[in-house]
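User: Predict the structure for this protein chain, please.
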Amino acid sequence: MGCPRGKASPNAHTKLRLFADSAGYCQNPSCLERLFVDTGEKNIHIAEMAHVFSASDDGPRGDTQLTAEQRGSYENLILLCANCHTTIDKAEEDYSDELILEWKYNHTLKIANLFGVTTCESRRDARNMIEPIFQENSAIFDAYGPMGEARFNPESDIPELWLIKVRSHILPNNRKILAILDANREYMSSDEVSVLEIYRQHVDDFESKHIGEYYVGGVQFPAKLSKILEN
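Assistant: Here is the predicted structure, written as C-alpha cells:
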C-alpha cells in the first residue's frame, strides 16, 4: 500500500483506518476484490491507496487549494485493488470525487452484506455465525502460528506462511467477528461486552503490527472470547 508522496503520503494510523474500513476488500462496490491474495506459497499484495483528489496539482481530480497534509489525509483516500486504482485515474472524467467518496461511504454496508452480518434471532444463532470463523482462525494458528514447533527450526517455511495467512485470512476474519458481535450486542452479558472491547483493541494492535508498519506491543487475544455467546 505504498504511496511515496511526501506529506501527501498517509501515515501509519491512516493506513490502519483504511484497512479496517476495507476489511481486506477493494472499496469499489462493483469489485470487492480481495486485497491480500494467498497463492499457496506467498501472499500477493494488490492493495493500493488511491487519492480522491490527486496528490499533485495536475493529477486526476486535482485541487490546487488542498494542502499536502489534506491530500494525504484519511478523508482523501480510498483503498482499492490495482485495477480499480488505475481505472479511476486514467478515466477521471467518469469517476468524480463525489462518486469515489460515495463508494467509500457505502463500502461498510457492502462488507456487512458480504460477511452476512445480521441481527440474529437468538444468542445461539449469533454464536453459530461466529463459530466457523473461530474454527478457521484457530486451525491457522495451530498449523502456522508463532508458538508451533517450527519456531525451533531455522530452515522452516512455516513462519513465512504464518505471515501470509495472517493477511489473507486472519485479519479479515477478525473484522468479520467484530461486525457480527457488534450487531448482536443485545445478547451479551456485561462481562462479555467487556471481553469484546478487549478483543477490539487486540484487533487494532494486531493490524498495526502486520499492516501499519509499526509495533510497540499490544493487547493480547482475550482467551474468554472463544467462549462468547455460548449457552
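The chain has seven helices and four strands.
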